[in-house]
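Good morning C.,

I know you're traveling, so I'll keep this short. The sequence:
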Amino acid sequence: MLKTKDQIQKLVALTSVMLMAAAEALAQEQLGPSTRRIVVSIPDRKLAVVQSGRVVKVFSTAVGGPRTPSPSGSYHIVQRISDPTWYGKGKIVPPGKANPIGTRWLGLSAKGYGIHGTNTPSSIGHNASHGCIRMRNRDVEQLFDMVAVGDAVEIYEERTPELDKIFGAVLMAKLSSADGE
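The C-alpha cells, ready to paste straight into the viewer:
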C-alpha cells in the first residue's frame, strides 16, 4: 500500500511538472514572433534596433552607392555568421583584417544582401557599399549579439514620420534670399 502511495505521489508530481511546461510553451507561443526589429534609414545612413516600440540602440552605417543602391523594403534575418569568408569575383578572402565584410555577417532574406562589418571603417556615414548595410566591426559585433534569425529588417529609402521619431527630425537650413531676408 505504501509503495502504491509513493507511485501516485510521483505521478502527481510528474504530471504537474508536465502541465507547467505545457502552459509555459503555450504562453511562449501566444507571444508570437519577436517584437524586435532593425530599422535602416538610407538617407540618414543609420540603423536602429527597436524592441517593443522602443529604440534600444542607434548605429552609424554605410549604405549602397548610386550605382549599387541598398534595397528598400521589408526583410528578415536569415543567417548569422561570425568571422565570415568573403567570396567575390574570382577571389576568396578568409576571416581577418583584409576581409571586406569584417567580423560579422547578418544575411537578409533579400538574396545577396546583408548587414556586415568592414575593413574600411572610413566608409561609414557614406553611400559607399555595393548595396549591403556596412557597420564598424565593433558595432556589428554588438548588433550581432542583440538580434536573431527571424528578426524583421526594414530598409527605408525616404524619411517617414516614424523615422523622424527614431532618428530625430531633419533640420533644414533656412535659405536666405539675395536681399538678406
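Safe travels,
E.
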